[in-house]
Structure formats: structure tokens, C-alpha cells
Amino acid sequence: MPNWQNQPPLPATWQRCDARILPLWWERLCAQAGQQSAALYAAGLFTEDRRRPIAQWFNPAFNAALLVAPETSPEWPVQRFGIFYAPPDAGFVRIHSAPHEWNPREPRKSPTEKEAFEAAVAEAERFLQVEMDFV
């Protein structure tokens, strides 16, 4: 058989979808940690869908997703964006990355919330590029 027929299919595309948090996050976290623990994770981020900004990518071909969202409780003095990954078909992990933090008590001091969010999104996009080499 010719070599070109043995090539793996092209990877499916990642679609950006920031409107609301995908139900996939809640389902995966409940399966991994149980419903009570899932409800408390990341200050209720996955149960209440109230905290913004978020950035989210979904890969329907692999049933995988990536999320950038606040992961600290709103009352904490330093806020931080986390990067969460739902690998193909099952599981849920927090991606360990540079801290993407800001201080809401000093909104004009760098890094601002916008700068922290943009840095987290850029790191998430780099993660997707690398991840596609392994999926």
C-alpha cells in the first residue's frame, strides 16, 4: 500500500466558543471528583457560569476542550486565571503554567486583569498548538 494512504487524518479544528461554559466541564469534573467536590472547585466556576472573562475552545471531533477562566475566589486579594484542559473523551486537568495574576485592589497597576487574561489566552493557544502534535 502506498505511504500516503497510511498518513493519519488531519487533526480536527479547535473552535472558539466563549458564550457560556460548556456542560462538558461539569460532567468531566463530576466524573473525576464527585458532585460535591466539583461544586466547590475553582470557587464554583463550573456550577454558576457567572465569572468573566473566559476563553474557551472545543474540539468536537475528539470531544476535548480548553478553558481560560478565573480560578480564585472573588474575595481573594490576588486573582488568577487558570488554564483547564479536558483531553479527548474523558478526564479533566489544570494546566500548570506561569501565574496569570492581577490585584483587583490596584486595577491600574500592571499586570491588570486584561493583561493577565491576554497572557493566559496566549499560553492556552500555545498549549493547543503543542497538544495537536500528540492528539
Task: Please give the structural blueprint.
Layout lengths: L14 E2 L6 H11 L1 H6 L4 H4 L6 E5 L4 E7 L8 E8 L6 E10 L10 H19 L4
Antiparallel strand pairs: 1-2, 2-3, 3-4, 4-5
The topology string of helices and strands comes to EHHHEEEEH
In DSSP terms (H or I, runs of 4 or more residues), the helix count works out at 4
Give the integer mean of the pLDDT values: 85
Give the N-terminus to C-terminus distance in angstroms: 24 Å
Q: Shape, please?
A: globular
How many strands, which pairing sense, and closed or not: the largest β-sheet? 5 strands, antiparallel
Widest sheet, order of strands: 1-2-3-4-5
Q: Helix fraction?
A: 25-40%
Number of strand segments: 5
Category by helix and strand content: alpha+beta
Gyration radius from CA atoms, angstroms: 17 Å
Provide the β-strand percentage band.
Answer: 15-25%
Low-confidence stretches: 1-5
What is the gist of this entry?
The protein is an alpha+beta fold.
Question: How would you sum up this structure, described in words?
Answer:
30% of the residues lie in helices and 24% in strands. By secondary structure, it is α+β, with helices and mostly antiparallel strands. Strands 1-2-3-4-5 form a five-stranded antiparallel sheet. Strand 4 and strand 5 (93-102) form a beta hairpin. The radius of gyration is 17 Å and the shape is globular. Mean pLDDT is 85; it is low at 1-5.
Task: Describe this protein with a few key phrases.
alpha+beta; about 30% helix; about 140 residues; globular; disordered N terminus; five-stranded antiparallel β-sheet
